[in-house]
Amino acid sequence: MKKIAVVLLLASFIIAGCSNTETTKKDTEYRIGILLSDAGLGDESFNDSAFRGLENARDEFGMIFDYREATDGDPEGALTELVEENHDIVIALGFSAKDALENVAAKYPEQQFLLIDEVSDMDNIISITFKEQEGSFLVGMIAAMTSKTNKIGFIGGVDVPLIHHFRAGFIQGVKYVKPDAEVFVDFAGTFDDPELGRTLALAQIEKGADFIYHAAGFTGYGSLQAAEENNIYAAGVDIDQFFVAEKAVVTSMIKKVDQAVYDIAKTLHENGKIEASSFQLGLAEDGVGLAEIRLKSLTPEEQQLLEDVTNKITSGEITVEAE
Asked: How far is 309 from 293, CA to CA, in rounded Å?
């Protein structure tokens, strides 16, 4: 399948920038500030992916960046600090940062902001969201192909619409392959409690689940380890989490936050600014996908089915519902 990468989706930024009569200074050291989501740096998932995108931009373009973790419960204060450090763009990572970001954006109308995983209508906020349900559909197919008990588990972080995308797509993918399979669903209520993730996974295993998929941030880390300790299979999320549990993780649903952040930085480097808008990245835009499939060898028929469905989702022939 030909992939066009997230860069193409941001082409409108570049076109708009090129039409500007102002001289672009590619040698300028642009500055980016980022407020990480609740679990913070080291979550082996969402935050680390975004951070890696900024590191890549720093290494390639000489971009300067700084970050904050609002562990004190004051995201507005953290965002304000980043604004006052004169960053060219300030990023808020995660749906829970929306209200704080909009409050700060209203106070600094000339500052450009980026919100990832939620949508804002404010003129100085760019919004980037992902079609997590599409990548999760493919994980669900693999789970169904792998499961011998026909009992499969899903563990979400917080019970909110964003995490419903993962759950809904996953269940649709499972049912596409095995309509009679049973899917257990639990929400941890947090993205930052691996012991709770382990506990939830063990309860699902006790009920017969032999494949568990999580969309729970660092909480899900515990579920992957529980799967490995109990000799069942699992799938990671956001980044390739095979290294977390190398005897359990068959694949991961890749959410290319790193690529999206990198592309924003590249556009800023090349054009000096970014035209505010809203973008949603799915399989067609190479915004989500699958990590390498390991541990489980798909049959030729299973591999062909996975490829066919991927192409049908990309072309729009199959629509994966978000709820």
From this structure: 16
| Alpha carbon distance 53, 18 (integer Å) | 24
Gyration radius (Cα) of the chain, Å: 20
Using one digit for the tens of pLDDT, what is the confidence trace for 4-28?
Answer: 344 444 444 434 444 443 434 445 6
DSSP 234-284: EEEEES--GGGSTTTEEEEEEE-HHHHHHHHHHHHHHHSS----EEEE-TT
Residues 124 and 84: their CA atoms lie apart, in Å, by 16
Place of tokens 């409690």: 193
Token pair 């591999």 is at which residue?
Answer: 303
User: Assign residue 156 a region: left if phi > 0, alpha if psi is -120 to 50, beta otherwise?
Assistant: beta
Pick the CATH number of 5-131+256-281 from 2.40.340.10, 3.40.50.2300, 3.40.50.1980, 3.30.559.10: 3.40.50.2300
Alpha-carbon distance of 172 to 152, in angstroms, equals 12
- Which pTM value belongs to this model? 0.86
DSSP-derived pairing of the beta strands 249-255 and 288-290: antiparallel
Give the C-alpha separation, 166 to 143, whole Å.
Answer: 14
Q: What is the pLDDT of residues 166-220, one digit of tens each?
A: 999 999 999 999 999 999 999 999 998 999 999 999 999 999 999 999 999 999 9
Q: Are 92 and 117 in contact (CB under 8 A)?
A: no
Closest C-alpha among 175, 185, 256 to residue 216: 185
d(Cα 275, Cα 219) in Å, to the nearest integer? 36
- DSSP helix/strand/coil, 218: helix
CATH class of 133-255+288-310: alpha beta
CA distance 75 to 59: 28
Q: How far, in Å, CA of 235 to CA of 137, rounded? A: 12
**Residue 32 pairs with which residues in a beta bridge?**
65, 89
pLDDT of residue 273: 78
Average pLDDT over residues 48-72: 90
Record the tokens describing residue 23, joined without a space.
């001289």
- 189: Cβ–Cβ under 8 A, 6 or more apart, which residues? 157, 158, 159
